[in-house]
């Protein structure tokens, strides 16, 4: 669930709550800057800022922030002994900003805006003398640079740069394609499922956050032009459909293109596409077989292998 949406709902309902954010992380830490945890009247509701006593202290600070209606900036030093006891990475320092969720109209407007926005800059004052101070500035994606969250040099503001999660277009809504789509949604990707068979392109078969489109590849690519931040996974019902889609996406700007199938399938499909004039360089970047080589057999296992590779691509590891 979108943690901003959950925070906005909590504040709108007038329920006591607090939002904890890793405002700055230095050294080796268990979670990166920008990670969030939502705390309710009885403790953690959603997300995590690292677990162990770090999280216990932050929950305590969140309950105090709720009670006194003022934010707090908590610093934790993860020395080797503490980290070893908790099973965490050692040697790092995290600054965690804890803000109470207040039914202030200006504050609520920012929460609501961020819950539905894809990119922008959120600035939150670390001290609230006359009520909450939180602003949102919409920015184009190309303007979003730097860490997901940071503190200003004077520590007076936490700044958060919001960018949308990578988008994965899954062509083919059969057993394997459906499993890949569901696993990708669970891993935090924005998912678009495309199949030209309406009975397969049924939104009821997928997570509520997934977009499901009953269309051919040409229509899909007009609706969703590919960028380098997009991934494409082709898992249709046969070589012919795969080849038609691959012909269109191999030369696209997509940052990741994967094709379900064997190495032999790659040879057969790419041979035909080369003959049709698709540049060899474009075909060489296609990942076939798609996914990590873990011996996957079932649709669910294949989905794990594919999404693991997608995560590696997202994090710049593969």
Structural class: alpha/beta
Which residues sit in consecutive blocks of at least 5 with pLDDT less than 50? 80-89
**Helical percentage:** 25-40%
Largest sheet: 5 strands, antiparallel
Structure description:
The chain is built from ten helices and 14 strands. It has 318 residues and is α/β, with parallel strands linked by helices. The protein has two domains: 160 residues, no CATH class; 148 residues, NAD(P)-binding Rossmann-like Domain (Rossmann fold, 3-Layer(aba) Sandwich). Strands 3-2-1-5-4 form a five-stranded antiparallel beta sheet, with helices on both faces. A five-stranded parallel beta sheet has the order 12-11-10-13-14, with helices on both faces. Helix 5 packs across helix 10. It is elongated, with a radius of gyration of 23 Å. It starts with a helix and ends with a helix. About 3% of the residues have low confidence.
In short:
This protein has 318 residues and is an alpha/beta fold. The protein has helices at 3-12, 52-68, 80-86, 105-116, 175-186, 217-223, 239-249, 263-275, 280-284, 299-314, and strands spanning 18-26, 36-40, 43-47, 72-78, 92-100, 120-125, 134-138, 149-151, 157-162, 167-171, 190-195, 211-214, 230-234, 256-259.
């Amino acid at each position: 669930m979108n943690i901003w949406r959950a925070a906005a709902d909590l504040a709108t309902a007038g329920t006591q709550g607090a939002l904890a954010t890793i405002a700055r992380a230095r050294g080796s830490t268990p979670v990166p800057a920008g990670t969030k945890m939502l705390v309710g009247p009885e403790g953690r509701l959603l997300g995590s800022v690292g677990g162990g006593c770090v999280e216990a202290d932050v929950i305590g600070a969140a309950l105090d922030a709720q009670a006194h209606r003022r934010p707090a900036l908590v610093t934790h030093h993860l020395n080797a002994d503490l980290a070893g006891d908790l099973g965490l990475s050692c040697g790092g320092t995290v600054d965690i900003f804890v803000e109470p969720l207040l039914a202030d109209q200006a504050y609520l407007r920012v929460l609501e805006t961020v819950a539905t926005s894809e990119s922008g800059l959120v600035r939150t004052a670390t001290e609230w003398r006359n009520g909450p101070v939180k602003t949102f500035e919409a920015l184009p994606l190309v303007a979003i640079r730097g860490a997901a969250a940071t503190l200003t040099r004077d520590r007076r503001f936490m700044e958060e740069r919001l960018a949308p999660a990578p988008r994965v277009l899954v062509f083919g809504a059969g057993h394997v394609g459906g499993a890949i789509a569901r696993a990708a949604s669970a891993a935090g990707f924005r998912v678009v499922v495309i199949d030209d068979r309406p009975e397969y392109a049924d939104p009821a078969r997928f997570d509520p956050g997934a977009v499901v489109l009953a269309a051919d590849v040409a229509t899909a690519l007009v609706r969703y032009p590919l960028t380098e931040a997009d991934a494409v996974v082709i898992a249709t019902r046969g070589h012919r459909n795969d080849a038609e889609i691959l012909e269109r996406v191999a030369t696209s700007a997509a940052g990741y293109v994967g094709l379900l199938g064997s190495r032999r399938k790659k040879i057969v499909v790419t041979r035909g596409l080369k003959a049709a004039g698709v540049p060899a360089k474009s075909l060489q970047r296609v990942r076939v077989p798609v996914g990590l080589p873990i011996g996957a057999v079932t649709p669910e296992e294949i989905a794990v292998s594919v999404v693991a590779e997608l995560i590696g691509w997202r994090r710049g590891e593969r």
